[in-house]
Structure formats: structure tokens, C-alpha cells
Automatic annotation (TrEMBL), chain A:
Residues 102-371 form the Fe/B12 periplasmic-binding domain. It comes from Paenibacillus sabuli. Residues 1-33 form the signal peptide. Residues 44-58 have a biased composition (Gly residues). The keyword Signal applies. Residues 30-91 are annotated as: Disordered. Residues 32-43, 59-82 have a biased composition (Low complexity). InterPro entries: ABC_Transporter_SBP, ABC_transptr_periplasmic_BD. Keywords: Signal. This is ABC transporter substrate-binding protein. Belongs to the bacterial solute-binding protein 8 family.
Automatic annotation (TrEMBL), chain B:
Pfam families: ABC_tran. InterPro entries: AAA+_ATPase, ABC_transporter-like_ATP-bd, P-loop_NTPase. It comes from Paenibacillus sabuli. Keywords: ATP-binding, Nucleotide-binding, Transport. SMART domains: AAA. Residues 3-237 form the ABC transporter domain. CDD domains: ABC_Iron-Siderophores_B12_Hemin. This is ABC transporter ATP-binding protein. GO terms for molecular function: ATP binding; ATP hydrolysis activity.
């Protein structure tokens, strides 16, 4: 998928999401409905019950949007408890008569969000990879698995009596079949940086955890704002160039529209592959050498960095492999020892502010000297996840 | 050079194909091997060529046992032409004939090799076809090209498996005349597997008649090709009479209960 | 025996014909060798980095000790450390795949045989997938596990097919059918691997399956080049034996070739060359099938010319394809396997249609 398509889909998703948030009304039928939610800086107040129509129409028809505009900022007292309509990250609207209580989660990112929103009790099953390999958040390890996150066992999902499936990678055909069987499937990615606060709020609204969702989403956004504000006065020439490599395969990087790209921008850096038309391009080595990035970031997989600690020997090998590639001795990042390994669990993830802080400190040590990523991480884990800080997250 | 098959036994898996067959071919002699389908003719020829190793008995050329000979040395003495397979790889006639020089060269071909190939082609009347690719030729021309390849090997012993099966009558005669001359004039030892009994009788000095893996009879055509033998081995009623150009075998009708088992293994 | 009379002219004519044919084959070989050199040099001047031809030539000359002066570090890194090893890896991979395809076709007397149709590639892909999935649980560098595993499965498959065929009798269909069957099994195995793998491993498998030459370094070239060239020389030394095989196994046997031994030797060596390169580059399709056929149209079936011509043809095709792959939407690289299919197949079809002669029936 190229950058333009991605951007337009994002744009559409955001626009539609916004529209729906305004229009469709939210939370009015749930116990935790507590009137208006606090909006973040970029989005308008929401909580109108007026636009919500029984019968579950999606929010894209004209009546709804008109109602949404009209009802913006108004209270919800007049509306009776009714359907909840939310739009997922694939711009698909879903209407629920009541808050789902049996949820199957396919993907560790939405699972992570569920823990952060205090909703882990609703989850009845996850996928193999989340359960066995990511094993985060902790509650997933004790749940049954429905198989692959792409093509889960549909019968098992139905047997479990799931009333919603949240998925990051599900095969569209499987999703369609599940929907036909009466189980709504919501796309919640959790790894697309700019969508994360939106998705948190969507989940909060659907599952009646608006306050917590808003608090978490707002804290993420305010952290972004903090990092961005300190880099705001940088001249282009003062911004270090960054090459960010995937954990799967040498020379595979991230262009605009991926989860890593906005983090580089926020931290006052320039993604050397930011303008490439392919989202995960395999770039040529000589181009990289000629581009001469100031900083190289490499994703380490969860077995090398993460809650279970760091695998020192592997990490050393991975960095050694990078710096010893042919011609890399000419690259600034290698010459100046600015090659870093980082877990993707703290970057394009709901835990992203932590990775962003590390990144900012690597790119501009002098500007972010006072920030402590570990303390921030500890705070996020304790506040939202109720988990103690542990593990190794970067290799510097 | 003389070639002897001495009590040769051979089996494909469990199927006995040759049961102690002994034949002897003297220098300058043409031996025709005849027999019904599946009687072991081609297998015997392959054993004599060292292509198959007999399960029992042995093949000797001028007293030397075949397995004891180096492969290359054996190939200089024995040339073999299989039945035409009908499919050809991208070689010209000249390529193919020069291939016959394989046992004599290690890498490059010298002018002597080319001269020998030219002589063989000239003798078979194929000079004008030398540059043609094999699959552009008729079946008969192709058969002759393969024979030319074996001749370029300059073998003392030449083994031919149904060399005329693909040929029209003119080409049949041409090839067989040539083969006979190779025996008479050049003193080569020739073994032919043949189907056509009259032709076999006419061009062979001696015949070996195989029946179900056994040697039924061996000797001059007149000794071997009797009406009784045809009845016993082939299960046909036939008339055999001497003619101006050798024996004439006229098949009349199949017998309803052939006395000899026909069939057995293919090949 | 109509033309029996003209012996002397005949001999002269045949001698002339032989010289002409041999001369033409030699010419094709020399042209291909020249093309290979040109392809290497041409590819060295092309790339996403903005270096002029003069800079490139200067770096190469200085590094080869053919010119004085010094080279700047960037030019050295790009030309000497990155481009040349990669071009040489393309060269050696092309040599290996096309050379092994040629001799496999020859020794099995089958035009459809290649490292792919024998199931070697699927097996190697399966081996690589296993290693990729096992990934982190393996000690040491994963790269070498992938290489070793790919090689192991490739070799095991060819040996397995060989022994099936020697039990069953070496009918032409036996090899191809066993190869196809094995391919299916291993393809299914790869699908299972893809199915059960997580997203990162999946992407790595997909990348590996597409094939590419970015893993190039002098180190890799130093491993592969002597191996592949050595194997090709041994195969070339068997060119006569392979030629004789063209007349059939019986003819070959009658001409002193130990058919079974030749077949085993050729298959093992060809597999070794192919799977060693596949292990470093991933699966690069079609070269092993296409190059021998193109060259058979050009020089005929004489393996003394066919083996070196095909090998060089494979090298040229792969160098050109990879150069296109790394320059056409630079700096993003297109896996070379995609390019070989895109430019190779139409070219091949064109030759196939234009060619009047059809080999093997």
C-alpha cells in the first residue's frame, strides 16, 4: 500500500471517526455513562445522545451527520438508553445494542489496550501468538486461544459465545463470515501511532470506560505534545537523519504512514525513508550509505528485548551485524556509536510514549535531558496497567 | 574379435529373462538373434554389450571377461546401437557421429576423429545430412546416423538392436548390406537382433533362436528356421523354403494353442 | 551407398562443417563471456547512489592496483564494498543455477528438469522457513541456520528422489513425478510454516521466498565463487559423458559411462551448487530452466559448450535483472526473482515460438 492510499484511508478514518463520535452518541446505555467526556485538544466535545438512533444505522447518512453537527457539545440527558455505534480503524461502523461482555481479542495491541482500560475481565480468548509469544499483557496467558490471529477458529469463537471480536490482522473473509454469524469484528490496530488515542477512545466508549480511556489517550497526546514542543524550533539542518530498520530482514525500513515514522518526526528527526512510496521498503545498501544517517534504530523482537529481559548476547550480535555490514563504516551513526536497538512494544504501541522518549533523548540528548523514560514507563504501567515495571527495553 | 556369451542368466526383479543362454560369434561373422517378443533377445544383446551385468554366467571377448575390462577399453571394442527411441536431443548428425569418438578422446577432437566421422558418413551416404539436426531427419536417416555413431567408435564388435525396424524396405537393404560388408570386408563381428525372419536369414551367417529366455536353436539359417521350430517357438504355422536369395519364410496362420509360452517380460 | 565415390570431397566438406560449427559455438561462448564482463562493469556503474562512471572506474582501477592515487571513503564503500560483491554474487548465483539446471536436464535427459522442478527449491524454502520460525530459539547467528537448513533439505530431497528413482527404475517420469510430489509436500510445509508463524517471521519467510541479493559481501562471494567454479569445472570435465547420455542410458553405458555413478555425481554437485547459492539468496526462479534452453538453441547439445554458455547466460541474466531490480525504483529494491520472471519469461516465450526446432519431441 503506498503512502497516498494510506494517508487517504487514515484521513477518511479520522474524519469518519470524528463524525461518528460526534454524531452517534455514546455510552448512554451503559452503567458508567457519566455525561460528557473531556475532549482532547484536537477533537471536539462529544457525548451527544441526540444522534443515536435505535435501529442501528451507521453514522454516515445525512441525518446522522446533521444531527451530529447540531448536537455537538449538547448534553445527553434527553436520550434514552440505546444502541452504541462506533467506527473501527477500517472506517467500518458497528452498532451494538448493549456493551459486549464476551470479547475475543486477536492481537496483543488491542489486548494491551484492554488491560489499560481495566477491561481484561471481558476477554474470553486471545490468539496463539498473543498468548504464547507476546505473552503481554499478563492476563492473556491464562486465557484459551482461538488459534491464528489471521485465521482464527470460527467455531470456537462462536462456541465461546463471543459478542465481539477485536482484531489487528484478521483475514477479511474470516471477518465477513464471523459477522454473518452475528459476531461483529472490529479492526483495532494498536500499532499505528496516530490511531492509538482514537482507538483507545473508541474502546472506552464501546465498553463504558470513557474516563480511563480519555485519561490514557490524553496522556499519550500530551506526551507527544511535550516532545514535539521541545523540537519545534529546530531548523531542518539541525535535525538528525534516522534510519529505522525492521526486525525482519536487513535493509527493510519504514516510510511515512507507518508506526515508526511519526515518532521520528515528533522527536525532531528526519526519517530518511519518509518519502518512499512503499510502506515497508527494502532499500538498497548503497543508498543508505550515501544517505549517511546520523542515527540507526533497529527493532529487536520480543525475545531479545521486553518484559522478559534482554538477551545481551543476541543484542550484541544484532548490533554487531549492523555495524559490520559492508560500507557501514562510512555511516555517521556507526562512526559515532549511535546505533540503538529498541523493543517495538514501546514504540508503535499504546506504550509508545516510552519509546518516543528514548528516541528523543537519542536524537537530541541536550533537549530532553530531564526526561526519564524508565520513570515514565513505570508511571504508565502502574497507573493504567497495574503492573510493575520490569524487563529490558533498549540496547544503547 | 570373437565374442562369447557363456550360460548367461539375467532377471528383471523376479522375472527370469535369460536362463543360461550361450552363443558364440566369430570374427567377421554376422549372428542374427531372433525369437518372439519377450524371449530375451534385446536383453541378451545388452548383456553382450556390457550394459547389463549377467546374474550368472559371463560374456568374454577374445577370452577376456567383460567385467574385468576397463569401461573405456571395452567401449573401444564393442559398439551398441539401441532401438530408435524417437526422441532426440539437439545434436546434428555430425555431433552424434563424433560422439562415437568418446572412448578415444579425452576432451578435444582431432582431425583424425573428424576424418573417421567423415569416412563413416560417406560410407553410409549421409555426408549431405551431416549438418542437419537429428529431429529434422526421417526415421531411417536417424537410424543410420545412430549406426554411424557406433561405427565411428571403430569397434571390433558391433551390436545392433533391430536396426531396420524403423526403415522402409530400401533403407533396410541399404543398412544390412552395409552391415554385412562391415563383417566381410572389415572383419567386424556383428550381432543383430531381428524380427523379420526372411531378412534375418538372408543377412545372417548364423542365427540364434531364443524362446522364453532359453536358446532354442543355433546354427545356420537352414538349421534353425524350420517349420517345426516356428511352430514350437512362435506358435505359427509357416512354410519355409529355400529361395534364390536365401530362405523364404511364409507365415500361414497362428496356431490356436501355441506350444511355447509367448510373453514373459517385456523388452 | 550412392555417394560412396566422393570420399575425398566428403571428408573435406565434413571437416569444413565441423570447423564451422565449432567456430560458431566458440564464438557464442566468447560473446557470452564478453557480455558477462560488460554486464559486471555496466552494473558497477549503475545504482541508487549518485556516482559518475568516472568515479566508479577510478575506484575499481585503484583497488585493483591498476591506477595510482586514492579513493574517497564513500566511493570505496559504495563501489567496492557494496556494488561489486553484490554483482559478483549475482554472477556466481547465475552460474550456479543455470549450470546446475543444464547438467540436471542432461543427466536426467529431461528438458523440464531444474532445481525447481526437482523439488529442490521447495525443500530449501521449507528448510529456510523452519529455521526462520525456530528463529530465536536457535543459538548463534540465524542467518547460518537458514543457510544450513535450506541446504540440508535441498540436498536430502535430491538424494531421496535419486534413491526412489534407482529403486523404481530410472524412467524419466520417475524423477519429475517424485520432484513434483516432493514440491507439493514442501510447499504445503511452507504454507503451514507461514500459517503458524507470527507476522515478523512471516514477512521474513516471504522475503526469503522472493529471493534477493542484498546479503552480498566479499565474504559470501569468497565462499561461493570457488565452490561454484570448482563444481562447474568438475561438471565440465564430465561434458563428454553427459553428451553420450543424450543417446540414452544404454548407449552411454555401452560407451563406457558408469551411468549411475555419473548421475549421482552430477546430481549431488548440481544440488550442492544450487542449494548453496539459494541458501544465501533465497529462491530465484526460472534462471535454471531458462538459461539452458536459450543456450541449447544457440549452441546445440554439446555439453562442452553448453555448460559454460548456460552458466554465463545465467550470470548475465541475473546481473541484468538485479541491476534493474535495484535501480528502477531506487532506493527501494525489487526482489530479483520478480525481475527474472518478468523479463525472462517473455524473452523465453519469444525464443520458444520463434524457434522452429523443438527438442525432445
Amino acid at each position: 500500500m503506498n503512502i497516498k492510499t494510506r494517508q487517504s484511508i487514515w484521513g477518511l478514518t479520522l474524519a469518519l471517526g470524528l463524525l461518528l463520535l460526534i454524531a452517534a452518541g455514546c455510552g448512554s446505555g451503559t452503567e458508567q455513562a457519566s455525561g460528557n467526556q473531556q475532549a482532547n485538544g484536537t477533537q471536539q466535545g462529544q457525548g451527544s445522545g441526540a444522534g443515536s438512533e435505535p435501529g442501528g444505522q451507521v453514522g454516515t447518512d445525512s441525518g446522522d451527520s446533521a444531527a451530529g453537527e447540531a448536537g455537538s457539545g449538547s448534553g445527553e440527558a434527553a436520550a434514552p438508553p440505546s444502541d452504541i455505534t462506533v467506527t473501527d480503524s477500517d472506517e467500518k461502523a458497528h452498532t451494538f445494542a448493549k456493551t459486549p461482555e464476551q470479547v475475543v481479542i486477536l492481537g496483543s495491541y488491542p489486548a494491551s489496550m484492554f488491560q489499560a482500560l481495566g477491561l481484561s475481565d471481558l476477554v474470553v480468548a486471545v490468539d496463539d501468538f498473543t498468548k504464547d509469544s507476546t505473552a503481554w499483557p499478563p492476563f492473556v496467558t491464562s486465557l484459551p486461544s482461538v488459534g491464528s490471529s489471521k485465521t482464527p477458529d470460527m467455531e470456537q469463537i462462536l462456541t465461546l459465545g463471543a459478542d465481539a471480536v477485536l482484531a489487528s490482522y484478521i483475514d477479511p473473509d474470516v471477518a465477513t463470515k464471523l459477522e454473518e454469524a452475528g459476531v461483529p469484528v472490529l479492526s483495532i490496530y494498536g500499532y499505528k501511532t496516530e490511531l492509538i488515542p482514537v482507538e483507545l477512545r473508541t474502546l472506552g466508549r464501546l465498553f463504558g470506560a470513557e474516563e480511563r480511556a480519555e485519561a490514557y489517550a490524553a496522556s499519550i497526546e500530551s506526551h507527544w505534545a511535550l516532545i514535539e514542543s521541545r523540537a519545534a524550533d529546530l531548523e531542518e539542518t539541525d535535525k538528525p537523519t534516522v534510519y529505522w530498520e525492521s526486525s525482519s530482514g536487513a535493509y527493510r525500513t519504514f516510510s511515512g504512514g507507518t508506526g515508526a515514522d511519526p515518532l521520528i518526526r515528533m522527536a525532531g528527526g528526519i526519517n530518511i525513508a519518509g518519502e518512499e512510496p512503499v510502506s515497508n521498503p527494502q532499500v538498497s545498501a548503497e543508498w543508505l550509505v550515501e544517505k549517511n544517517p546520523d542515527v540507526i534504530i533497529k527493532y529487536a523482537s520480543s525475545t531479545d528485548l521486553g518484559f522478559h529481559g534482554g538477551n545481551e548476547a543476541n543484542l550484541k550480535d544484532i548490533r554487531e551485524e549492523i555495524v559490520s555490514r559492508p560500507g557501514f563504516d562510512q555511516i555517521n551513526a556507526v562512526q559515532n556509536g549511535r546505533v540503538y536497538l529498541i523493543s517495538n512494544k514501546i514504540t508503535s504501541d499504546p506504550l509508545g510514549p516510552v519509546g518516543l522518549t528514548y528516541l528523543a533523548k537519542w536524537l537530541h540528548p541536550e533537549r530532553y535531558d530531564d526526561l526519564d523514560p524508565t520513570a515514565l514507563f513505570q508511571d504508565i504501567l502502574e497507573t493504567y496497567y497495574g503492573e510493575p515495571y520490569k524487563g529490558e527495553w533498549v540496547y544503547e | 574379435m570373437k565374442i562369447v556369451a557363456d550360460k548367461v542368466r539375467f532377471a528383471y526383479g523376479q522375472t527370469q529373462v535369460l536362463r543360461e543362454v550361450s552363443v558364440e560369434v566369430r570374427e567377421g561373422e554376422v549372428l542374427g538373434i531372433i525369437g518372439p517378443n519377450g524371449s530375451g533377445k534385446s536383453t541378451l544383446l545388452r548383456c553382450m554389450g556390457g550394459i547389463y551385468v549377467p546374474a550368472g554366467g559371463e560374456v568374454r571377448i577374445d577370452g577376456a571377461r567383460l567385467p574385468s575390462m576397463a569401461r573405456r577399453a571395452r567401449a573401444k571394442q564393442i559398439g551398441y546401437v539401441p532401438q530408435t527411441s524417437g526422441e532426440e536431443q539437439p545434436f546434428t548428425v555430425l555431433d552424434l557421429v563424433l560422439m562415437g569418438r568418446r572412448p578415444h578422446v579425452s576432451w578435444g577432437l582431432g582431425s583424425r576423429d573428424v576424418a573417421i566421422a567423415a569416412a563413416v558418413l560417406g560410407e553410409l551416404g549421409m555426408t549431405h545430412l551431416a549438418g542437419r539436426y537429428l529431429n529434422e531427419l526421417s526415421g531411417g536417416q536417424r537410424q543410420k546416423a545412430h549406426i554411424a555413431r557406433a561405427l565411428a567408435q571403430e569397434p571390433a564388435i558391433l551390436l545392433l538392436d533391430e536396426p531396420t525396424s524403423a526403415l522402409d524396405i530400401r533403407h533396410q537393404l541399404e543398412v544390412l548390406e552395409f552391415v554385412r560388408r562391415a563383417a566381410r570386408r572389415d572383419g567386424r563381428t556383428i550381432v543383430l537382433v531381428m524380427h523379420e525372419l526372411s531378412i534375418a536369414a538372408r543377412y545372417s551367417d548364423r542365427l540364434a533362436l531364443l524362446s522364453d529366455g532359453r536358446l532354442h536353436a543355433a546354427g545356420t539359417p537352414e538349421e534353425v528356421l524350420t517349420e517345426q521350430a516356428l511352430q514350437e517357438v512362435y506358435g505359427v504355422e509357416a512354410q519355409v523354403r529355400p529361395g534364390e536369395y536365401g530362405l523364404e519364410v511364409v507365415p500361414i496362420r497362428p496356431l490356436h494353442e501355441p506350444e511355447a509360452a509367448v510373453g514373459g517380460a517385456a523388452r | 551407398m550412392t555417394k560412396h565415390g566422393g570420399g575425398v570431397q566428403d571428408a573435406a566438406a565434413i571437416g569444413e562443417l565441423h570447423r564451422k560449427h565449432a567456430g560458431r559455438k566458440l564464438l557464442v561462448l566468447l560473446v557470452l563471456a564478453a557480455l558477462t564482463v560488460l554486464a559486471v562493469l555496466g552494473a558497477a556503474t549503475l545504482g541508487s547512489a549518485s556516482l559518475g562512471i568516472g568515479d566508479v572506474v577510478h575506484v575499481i582501477l585503484v583497488k585493483l592496483g591498476l591506477a595510482g592515487g586514492s579513493v574517497d571513503a564513500l566511493g570505496n564503500a559504495i563501489v567496492w564494498e557494496l556494488r561489486l560483491p553484490r554483482i559478483l554474487l549475482a554472477l556466481v548465483t547465475g552460474l550456479a543455477l543455470a549450470g546446475s539446471g543444464t547438467v540436471m536436464q542432461g543427466v536426467l535427459r529431461n528438458p523440464l528438469v531444474s532445481p525447481f522442478t526437482l523439488g529442490l527449491s521447495s525443500a530449501a524454502a521449507f528448510g529456510a522457513s523452519v529455521a526462520i520460525i525456530a528463529g530465536a530459539s536457535l543459538p548463534g547467528n540465524l542467518r547460518y541456520w537458514i543457510i544450513g537448513s535450506a541446504f540440508f533439505f535441498g540436498m536430502a530431497t535430491v538424494l531421496f528422489i535419486y534413491f526412489v528413482a534407482s529403486l523404481k527404475g530410472s524412467g524419466k517420469a520417475t524423477y519429475l513425478l517424485s520432484g513434483v510430489a516432493i514440491s507439493y509436500v514442501f510447499s504445503a510445509g511452507v504454507s503451514v510454516m507461514k500459517y503458524v508463524s507470527d507476522h515478523e517471521a512471516l514477512r521474513e519467510i516471504v522475503v526469503w521466498l522472493m529471493g534477493g541479493l542484498w546479503g552480498a559481501s566479499w565474504h559470501v562471494v569468497a565462499i561461493l565463487l570457488p565452490l561454484v567454479v570448482g563444481i562447474l569445472l568438475v561438471l565440465l570435465a564430465n561434458a563428454w559423458n553427459l553428451n553420450v547420455m543424450a543417446g540414452g542410458e544404454e548407449v552411454a553405458a555401452s560407451m563406457g559411462v558408469h551411468v549411475k555413478r555419473l548421475r549421482l555425481l552430477v546430481l549431488v554437485l548440481a544440488t550442492l551448487a544450487a542449494s548453496a547459492t539459494i541458501a544465501f539468496t533465497g529462491i530465484i526462479g526460472f534462471i535454471g530452466l531458462m538459461a539452458p534452453h536459450i543456450c541449447r538453441m544457440l549452441v546445440g547439445g554439446d555439453n562442452r559448450y553448453l555448460i559454460p554458455c548456460s552458466a554465463l547466460m545465467g550470470a548475465v541474466l541475473l546481473i541484468v535483472s538485479d541491476t534493474i531490480g535495484r535501480t528502477v525504483i531506487a532506493p527501494t529494491e525489487i526482489p530479483v526473482g520478480i525481475i527474472t520472471s518478468f523479463i525472462g519469461v517473455p524473452f523465453f516465450m519469444y525464443l520458444l515460438i520463434r524457434q522452429r526446432r523443438q527438442w525432445w519431441g
